[in-house]
């Protein structure tokens, strides 16, 4: 209750969000920051503006808590920084996440927004006109006046009309019917680095009205390397970023690379081995139903375990033997209170294995995460693209945990 009260107290007026700065930020970079939006500012009617304001206040609360968590060193061995797992192999590796320049820039951008909220708000909108992001529907919408006001196609309609694979359609229906239970309740809990709750329990309008994308559900060549249960049981929403509600191109003349939002992945699923040339982080927000329920795999592109088999001017094809006799030790468990933060450098190969066998009602449960990418403005690399790995023995099909996997990594441009 105390955390909820703190969160609500931050939602009063836009100007009230201004925050004390971490000592690695320069006050002169924050004060009177200048914003260049992606697209033209949207003019809302008085009736619409009421709901936009509610969504904006919850967005500011979300972003502020996120910045505070990333710079919170109270429960780590870091100074002014949370600690993140970066590689699960070879016994596991961690780092102080704020040692990364891209993380410092993302946190700076968030403080520039919350300390200049009135100016940043011109780049904010409900995005109801975007036809490829969706409303989960059900109880989440019923509990959100904002989601009810700004109409979107619902998950139910999406899986019924835009998905052709019968198995994915069936799994998507189950995902849709249980989405509210997946993202709310006592099983969803914030890591201790957060100053207050920013889950759907505390910010119901933001989670309902952000605009969700079931990114693997529709047919695509990429999905030849995917599993049906992920295709029908995964979605993400973007709050701050090029495709989100708050769309900022530049602050003080510098490009903004932050994409900040949330992800939901059903239990009893393996998010396949994949990679992208954009750095990415996750904060786990789930209480596990059993030990080692949420396992993550990550191996960096320069690991001695990764072997190059082919390369050209744009791509480096690599293989990794996940079938080694000790392969299970290369997956590390995490939860809201056990190593909740993960940071994946560019081209890190990673995957998520979510066990549902210990859940009383697995169809109602998922792993819920606060998610971000930090340098997504760099369009020379694979901006916005997730590359799925494949079975080395059977290319073009998804790789399982007990075989040699093959991945195409992007040649990064600097």
The name of the CATH topology of the domain at 138-410 is Jelly Rolls
Strand content: 15-25%
N-end to C-end Cα span: 47 Å
CATH top level of the domain at 138-410?
A: Mainly Beta
Per CATH, the architecture of the domain at 138-410 is: Sandwich
- The counted number of beta strands is 20
For this structure, the quaternary state is single chain
Radius of gyration: 20 Å
Question: What would the average pLDDT be, to the nearest integer?
Answer: 94
| Count of DSSP-assigned helices | 11
Which residues form runs of ≥5 with pLDDT under 50? 1-16
Main sheet summary: 6 strands, antiparallel
Shape annotation: globular
Please bin the fraction of helical residues: 10-25%
CATH H-level superfamily of the domain at 138-410: Jelly Rolls
Keywords: Signal
Signal peptide: 1-18
What does this entry look like structurally?
The relative contact order is 0.15. This protein has 414 residues and is an alpha+beta fold. The termini are far apart. It has helices at 2-9, 27-30, 46-70, 101-114, 117-120, 138-142, 145-149, 155-161, 166-183, 204-209, 228-231, and strands spanning 35-37, 83-87, 93-96, 212-213, 234-240, 248-251, 254-255, 259-266, 269-275, 280-284, 294-299, 307-311, 315-321, 332-333, 341-344, 349-354, 366-373, 387-388, 390-391, 404-410. The protein has a 6-stranded antiparallel β-sheet. A 5-stranded antiparallel β-sheet has the order 14-11-16-9-18, with no helix packed on it. It is 24% helix and 23% strand. The chain has a domain at 138-410: Jelly Rolls (Sandwich), CATH 2.60.120. Helix 8 (155-161) runs antiparallel to helix 9. The protein is globular. It has 11 helices and 20 strands. Keywords: Signal. InterPro entries: RmlC-like_jellyroll (IPR014710). Residues 1-18 form the signal peptide.
């Amino acid at each position: 209750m105390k955390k909820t009260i703190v969160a609500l107290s931050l939602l009063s007026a836009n100007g009230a969000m201004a925050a004390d700065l971490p000592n690695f930020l320069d006050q002169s970079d924050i004060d009177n920051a200048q914003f260049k939006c992606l697209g033209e500012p949207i003019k809302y009617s008085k009736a619409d503006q009421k709901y936009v304001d509610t969504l904006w206040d919850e967005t500011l609360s979300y972003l502020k808590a996120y910045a505070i968590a990333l710079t919170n060193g109270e429960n780590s061995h870091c100074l002014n920084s949370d600690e993140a797992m970066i590689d699960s192999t070879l016994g596991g590796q961690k780092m102080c996440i704020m040692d990364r320049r891209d993380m410092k820039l993302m946190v700076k951008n968030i403080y520039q927004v919350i300390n200049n909220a009135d100016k940043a708000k011109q780049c904010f909108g409900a995005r109801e006109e975007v036809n490829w992001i969706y409303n989960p529907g059900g109880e989440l919408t019923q509990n959100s006046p904002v989601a009810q006001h700004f109409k979107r196609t619902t998950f139910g309609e999406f899986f019924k009309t835009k998905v052709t694979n019968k198995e994915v359609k069936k799994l998507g229906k189950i995902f849709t019917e249980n989405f509210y239970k997946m993202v709310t309740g006592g099983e969803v809990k914030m890591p201790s680095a957060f100053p207050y709750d920013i889950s759907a329990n505390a910010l119901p309008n933001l989670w309902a009205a952000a605009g969700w994308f079931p990114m693997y559900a529709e047919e695509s060549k990429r999905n030849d390397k995917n599993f049906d249960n992920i295709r029908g049981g995964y979605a993400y929403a973007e709050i701050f970023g090029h495709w989100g509600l708050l769309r900022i191109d530049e602050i003080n003349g510098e490009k903004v690379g932050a994409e900040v939002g949330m992800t939901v992945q059903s239990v009893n699923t393996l998010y396949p081995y994949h990679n992208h040339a954009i750095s990415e982080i996750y904060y786990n927000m789930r209480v596990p139903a059993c030990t080692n329920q949420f396992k993550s795999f990550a191996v960096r592109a320069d690991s001695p375990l990764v072997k190059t088999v082919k390369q050209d001017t744009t791509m480096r094809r690599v293989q990794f033997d996940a079938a080694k006799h000790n392969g299970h030790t290369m997956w590390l468990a995490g939860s809201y209170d056990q190593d909740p933060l993960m940071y994946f450098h560019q081209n890190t190969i990673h995957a998520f294995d979510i066990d549902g066998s210990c859940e009383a009602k697995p169809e109602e449960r998922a792993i819920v995460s606060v998610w971000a990418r930090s340098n997504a403005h760099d369009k020379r690399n694979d901006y916005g693209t997730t590359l799925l790995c494949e079975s080395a023995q059977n290319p073009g099909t998804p790789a399982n945990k007990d075989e040699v996997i093959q991945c195409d990594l992007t040649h990064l441009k600097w």
